[in-house]
Amino acid sequence: MHIDGPVRFAIAGFGHIGKRHAAMIAANPACELAAVCDIAAENTLGLPENVPFYQDWEALLSANPGIHVCCICTPNGLHAEQSLSALSHGKHVVVEKPMALSRADCERIIHKALNVSRQVFCVMQNRYSPAAQWLHGLIKQGLLGDIHLVQVQCYWNRDERYYRPGGAPHPWHGHPQLDGGTLYTQFAHFIDILYWIFGDIHRIQSQFYDFAHSHTTAFEDSGTAFFELVQGGMGSLTFSTAVWGQNFESTLTAVGSKGTVKLGGQYMNEVAYCHIEGYDMPELPAAQPANEYGGYQGSAANHHHVIQNVVEVLKGQKETTTNALEGMKVVDMIERIYQAGSRPMAASWPPATANPLKTKSHV
Hints:
The longest helix is centred in the last third of the chain and has 16 residues, at 324-339. A hairpin with a 4-residue loop joins strand 14 and strand 15 (297-300). The chain has helices at 16-27, 57-63, 79-88, 103-116, 130-141, 160-163, 182-185, 188-198, 303-314, 324-339, and strands at residues 7-12, 31-37, 53-54, 69-72, 92-95, 120-122, 147-155, 201-209, 222-229, 234-240, 249-256, 259-264, 270-276, 290-292, 297-300. It folds into two domains: 7-125 and 354-358, NAD(P)-binding Rossmann-like Domain (Rossmann fold, 3-Layer(aba) Sandwich); 129-277 and 324-346, Dihydrodipicolinate Reductase, domain 2 (2-Layer Sandwich), CATH 3.30.360.10. The chain has ten helices and 15 strands.
């Protein structure tokens, strides 16, 4: 059944990305923010006026039968259970990346959504960047010919400002069960771009290293993976969060039988090189800036496109741009990349049950 009036949203988790969702909901005339849930005290969050606030996710869901959509903006390791709770209450779900920390949990979400006839939208907003859409169109039209090689390189900074703000350990950044790893938290968007444009990968070989974060994270800060593209060609991924001072770049180079292209910039938001047989490079729209999070930057600020797609789908006007199956595929690819090598995991780490984010129904 399509929604005729305003689409009513609830947000689980009101940190940086939850606030971004709230701003995009407020900016869309077809949307209404109906409730927010977080474990922090209400007066510390900077909530919008007159929006009901809860510190218990189940209480919010039970008290608000009129909510249509739940945005899951909490730590990675909580996405699966909170999505399942929302679906159990008959809500559609918008889940931030990654959809979950395992393919098995993604499958649980998909099965539940099918059982209750609800939509799951996965936030992969870098697909909306003009450069990514341009390259997607090129490959779809076959203008590069046969793909020989795809190379993805992601070099960002995540230092003490991110993992120990104010000198104390962050509640979930770097935690093995709540964060999950660099590919899940920092670079899932770029693995999504790889999958969206070039398809699945197999025959993976990986290596991982921890150069600068042994005291702040439970896992790698750098790695490389070599693989074959299922549709033909070879590829590689090299990544690091050990870059000093600030983010450097995220690039994707594609070499085909009819040309070569390279996306560059901090989050693959620019066309750095284009040389294709019989092709003139068009002028592309300007890209959105990066999401600003104080001491560090994230990916493209394209969440308005995500919220608009949710509205259009639920009103029966368009198809889902990033559906649950694609969200699961990104998690599946990350899981297989990790399984293809030996990760430098910490021998011990404070248990997730001791983390304050695991209280109050895990919000």
